User: What shape does this take?
Amino acid sequence: MMKASNKKNNLYIAGIVLAVLTFWLFANSMINIIPAMIEDMNISLGILNIATSLTALFSGLFIVVAGGMSDRSGRKKMTYIGLILSVVGSLLVLLSQGPILLILGRALQGISAAFIMPATISLIKTAFDEKDRQRALSYWSFGSWGGAGVATLAGGLIATYMGWRWIFVISIIVALISMWILRDIEESKANDYKKAPFDYVGFVLFVILLLGVNIVVTQGQELGWTSPLMIALMSGTLLVLAGFLEFEKRRKHQFIDFNLFKIKPYTGAVVSNFLQNGIVATIVVANIYVQVARGFSSFEAGLLTIGHIITLLVMIRVGERMLQKMGARKPMLWSILIAALGMSMAAMTFLPDAAYVVVVFIGFLIAGIGVGMYATPSMDTSLVHINNDQVGIASGIYKMASSLGNSFGIAISTAIYGTVQLMTDNIHIAGAMGILTAFVFGILSFWVVSKTISPEEGLSDAFEVAGKA
Assistant: This one.
C-alpha cells in the first residue's frame, strides 16, 4: 500500500481524531448534564441514568463485532458507518422530548463508537508506517483519553452557556467534518474476507456473554454479590462462556481468532490495558470519598483531577518518544508503577483536609504521567505483530479490554469501599481500602508486562513491519 504524503497524513490524523471525539468528548458529556436535562425534559432520573449508561454498554457489546466487520468489509467504510450512526444518534437525542428518542439515540451513539474505535485504529495501522503510525496512535489517544478527561468540563460549559442540546449539534458538525476529511483516505480490508463465513452463532453467544458480564459487574453491589439472583447470573454467564469457548474451538472460522493470544506481546498489551484501566477506575472511589467524607461538591471533586488530565495529555507524546528510543517494555513498566503509586496516594485518608487535598492533587497528577506514558507503547505493541487481515478484530479486543477494565475497576473498588465501610463503620478506612485497589491492579499489570513484553519489543519494529509487507 502506498502511504500518503506528510501533509495528507496530518489531515487524515485530524479526521480520525475528530471521529474519536464524537464519542469520547460529546457522547460522554451527558454524564455532566443530567440536572439540565431533568429540568428541560419530563423524564425521571432513573431513565436518564439508563440512557447515560447505554452508550458505554452498547459500545462494549459490539466493539469486537464491529472490529471483525471492518476487517471483512473495509475500515474506511466502517468508520463512515460509525460516523453516520453518530450523526443519527446525536440528532435523535437533540430532538428528544421523552424517553423513546433519547434511549434510541444513546444506543446508536454506543454502536457508532463500536464501529469508529477499532476501524480508526485499523486505518492507522494500514495507512501509516513506523514513526508516522506511532505519532498517529498518540493523537488517537489524545482524542480518546483527552476527550474523556474534558468531557464533563466541556459538557458543563456548553450546557451552562449555550444549552445542553448544543452538545449534540456540535457533535453532528464534528462528525460531518471528519467524514469530509477522510473522504480520500485509502480503503483497506482483509484480503481473504470473502472466504470466511460470518460466525453468527458465535456472535450471538459473545453478545450474551458480554451482556452477562456487564450486568454482573455493574449490578453486583446493588443486587448483592451473594444474593440468589446474582449467583444465578454469574452461573449463567459462566455457562455461556463455556459454551462459547467449546463452540468456537470446533469451528474453522471463529468469531474471535484465539490464535491472536498466542502472540505474547499482543496478549501482554491487551491484559495490561485491562489492568491499567482498572487502576484509573479507582478515581471513582476517591471522588465519592472526598464528597461524602470531606464535604466536597461534585465540581470541587472534579477540580482535583485537572492535573491528571494535563499531565496525561502531555505524556502521551513523551511515551511515543520513549517507545522509539528504548522500546515498549521500559515505558510500559514505568508507567504502570507511576500510575498505581499516584492513584494510591489518595489512600492517605488519615491526613487532615488541607494536606489531603494537596496529596490527592499531586497523586492524580503523577497518575496522569503514568497513564499518558502507557498509551502509545501499549497500543503500538498491540498492533505491530498483527497482520493487516486481522487488525480490526485485534483492535476491537484491545478496546474492549479498556471498557471491561474500567467496569471491573469501578465495580471492585466500590465494592471494597462499601463492604469495608459496612464492616468497620469507618469511612476513612473504607476509602483507603477502595483506593488501594489501584495498587493491586498495578502489581498484576507489572507482572503481566514483565512476562510477555521482551526488552527488544519495539526496537526492531522496522524489520517486523518489513517482514509482513
Q: What stands out?
A: The chain is about 80% helix and 0% strand. Confidence is low (pLDDT under 50) at residues 461-469. The CA atoms of residues 227 and 298 lie 32 Å apart.
